[in-house]
Amino acid sequence: MAVPPEIVRSARIGPTLVLTLDHPPVNVLSRAVLDALEERLTEAEADPEVRVVVLASAAEKAFAAGANIREMAPMGPPEARAHGGRGQAVTRTIEQLPLPVIAAVHGVCLGGGCEIALACDFIVASTDAQFGQPEINLGVMPGWGGTRRLPRRIGAARARRWILTGRSVPASEAAEAGLVDRVVPRLELLPTALALASELAAKPPVALAAAKYALLNAIDPDIDPGLEYELDLWARLFGTTGQKEGMEAFLAKRPLPTYSRADWERSSLGFPWAPGAGRTGKRKKGKVSGPD
User: Fold this and answer.
1) pTM for the model
2) Is the link from the previous residue into 185 a cis peptide, with omega within 30 of 0?
3) Count of Cβ atoms closer than 10 Å to residue 123 Cβ
4) 30 and 21 in contact (C-beta within 8 Å)?
5) Mean pLDDT, rounded, for 14-34
6) Alpha helices in the chain (DSSP H)
7) Does the structure show a pLDDT above 50 at 285?
8) Looking at residue 291, what is its pLDDT?
C-alpha cells in the first residue's frame, strides 16, 4: 500500500539518495513512518543510479525521538510482537541494503531512532546530537535490534551501562565510544555526510556490497536468532506492571512510580530467569503469548 511521500522525503544529489524524515515535531517513529521509510529504501535498491543512501531529518530538534509510545502503551504481547517485528524489519532492511547507508544525526536520537542509526553503516553527528536507549524507563527494553547492535558498536560494558540506566549521551561521548564516526558543527552535518557518500559512490558497487555483507557476517553471523530472542523478551514485557505504569507515567509527564518485586515469581513466568526455566540464555521454541 502506498504511503504519504512527505513523511519520508526523497531527493537525489548525484548518485546519493537523501531520505529525510519529516514527521513533526520530532519524527516519532509511528507505523506510517516505518512503512514510508521501508518503501523509500526499497525504491533506492531498485534504482540503478543510486549508489549511497543518506538518512537525515527535517525536524529542528531531533533525528528521531523514538517509537510512538501512545501507540504502544495499550499493546499486549501479541500486538507488541507484531510492532516490534515491524521495527526490526526496517532496521534489517537498512542493514541488508546492498548500498552504504549513512545516518546524518542531529538533536535527539533515542530509542527506536537510535536503533535506526545503529543499523546504518556510518553515523555522522552534529555537536548537539544525543544518543540513547531509554526504554528501561518505560518498563521495557530495546526491541528493534538495540541489544544486538549496540554491543557490537561500543562493546558490552558500555552497552550495558547505556541500556540498563537508560541514560542519554552527547555526540562527543558517542564518538569516543565508537558509535559515531565523526562529529561536526550542525551546519556542516549534511555536507559532511554527502562528502562521505561521494567517496563511497566512487567505489565499485558490487565490491562495495560484497564487502558490506562480508563484514556483517563476520561481525554478527547469528544476528537473526539474536533478534528473535530480543523480540521474545521485548514482547513479553508488554502487560507487565512496569510497562503499563512506566508508559502511563511517560504519557502523563509524571515521575516514574516506585517498583517492588512483591509479585516477582508470577510476573517472571515465561522469562529465562523464571523458576525451572534454567539460566542458559537460550531461546525456547514457540511464540510469546503473554504473561500467565
Assistant:
1) 0.91
2) no
3) 28
4) no
5) 96
6) 31-46, 69-72, 77-96, 112-118, 146-154, 156-165, 171-177, 189-201, 205-219, 223-237, 241-252, 264-267
7) no
8) 40
